[in-house]
Amino acid sequence: MDVMEREPAALLSVLTDGNAVLNDHADDAGLCAVCGSAWPCDATRLAGAFR
Question: What is the pLDDT of residue 26?
Answer without folding.
Answer: 92
